[in-house]
Amino acid sequence: MAYDIALIPGDGIGQEVVAAARPVLDDAATDAGFSLDYERFDWGSERYLDEGAMMPDDGIDRLRDRDAILLGAVGHPDIPDHVTLRGLMLPIRKRFNQQVCRRPAVLYEGVESPLRGYGGGDIDLVVFRENTEGEYADVGGREHRGFDHEVAIQSAVFTRQGTEDVVRAAFEAATERDGKLTNVTKSNAQAYGMVLWDDVVAEVGEEYPDVEVERLLVDAASMDFVRRPDEFDVVVASNLFGDILTDLGAIVTGSMGLAPSANVNVEGDYPSMFEPVHGSAPDIVGQGVANPLATVLSGAMLFDHLGEEAAGERLRGAVADQLADGDAPRTPDLGGDAGTEAVVRDLRDRL
Ligand code: NAD
Ligand code: IPM
Ligand code: MN
Fold it and tell me: Which part of the chain is the Isopropylmalate dehydrogenase-like domain (predicted)?
């Protein structure tokens, strides 16, 4: 079996972590008896600087028939982020209706949390982030540019269907995990979209009587991600709130360099996309110290999505094994002094 995978390394350390993760994914695939046929797309900010566009006009069409997409990161210090992101990553999520973003945060054995008193296995949660609408709906405008009475409107859009898709995915995950779902909103202040959201959670929740539902406002949830992260199981949140909470989830479980994600097209009409939660990290680019494990773990989610769960488990096992080994190389974000390459070599040995 061969799968057709689009590789979009993108910008900054995105290129480093995708190049590093690729042989690891290949090893795991070969062991499991399948292979990955990649097509690599050099789309991103360099292309924008040369040709004025992040991807070609037919970019979306060229991705459409792939089995999955693996993306590194997008973002360049010399180009406004809204230009680069709205030129490449966000349109892929939207055009392929990747409405459900799944972002696990696991505190691995051997990894130090910045929170006192938490050790390996103590934190194991997953955030389901609505991924195509909400606060990221491209609806708004800007009038009277540069004048004192300039006004900008940025609207959030919540559809019943879009909300239901992510809420249902979260309930399903809760039934397979510890049966607990935390619904994060700001419905005390935002009386339209967030109240529709709460209504949908209540309605879908009736189909899952065994799932315990907790409601938290996003400000309190942010506090509780620090105060009691061990008590979360499945968290469901809107696009922006899910974005913010998943950086928090990443750091309380050790590092941005360990946090993977899946952007899932639930209907299966279009390819899903897998990418680390982190960005292009211009502060460390070119130093060879980017942690490749978030991308490797995103590859594991990609394998699960293809139905190759054994290979996914194998990758997660090798990562867990490496992190638990105090003598194994680790990158500076995890307190080590090893580079990306050393981490990959060690990981391949463990596979
Ligand atoms: P960032 O995630 O790139 O970096 C935040 C911090 O985490 C930095 O200190 C960085 O060095 C560290 N870090 C991130 N990934 C790491 C890794 N693999 N190993 C070690 N350290 C790591 O966030 P930012 O600085 O806010 O954003 C930089 C650029 O990336 C911006 O242009 C932003 O828009 C973009 N961005 C893109 C994505 C994406 O493509 N999915 C996600 C987030 C940010
Ligand atoms: C992420 C990123 C993106 C997002 C940005 C770069 C648009 O922060 O994937 O978490 O907010 O979705
Ligand atoms: Mn983010």
Answer: 4-347
Helix residue spans in 33-87 (DSSP H): 45-51, 59-63, 81-87
Q: Ligand 2 in contact with 73 (CB < 6 A)?
A: no
CATH of 1-99+261-351, one of 2.60.40.10, 3.20.20.70, 3.40.718.10, 3.40.50.1000: 3.40.718.10
Which residues are registered as beta bridge partners of 275? 261
124-252 has which CATH code? 3.40.718.10
Q: What is the pLDDT of residue 243?
A: 98
The reply to whether ligand 2 has any atom less than 6 angstroms from the CB of 334 is no
Task: Express each pLDDT in 115-146 by its tens digit.
Answer: 999 999 999 999 999 999 999 999 999 999 99
* Helix (H) or strand (E) run with residue 224 in it: helix 218-227
* Ligand 1, atom 37, residue with closest C-alpha: 279
Domains 1-99+261-351 and 124-252 share a fold: yes
C-beta of 284 in contact with ligand 1 (< 6 A): yes
Q: How far apart are CA 325 and CA 141, in angstroms?
A: 52
Q: 254 with 263: CB under 8 angstroms?
A: no
SS3 308: coil
- Catalytically annotated residues: 136, 186, 219, 243, 247
Q: How far is the CA of 212 from the centre of ligand 2 (A)?
A: 29
Cα(17) to ligand 1 centroid in Å equals 12
Average pLDDT, the chain: 98
> So what's the ipTM on this one?
0.99
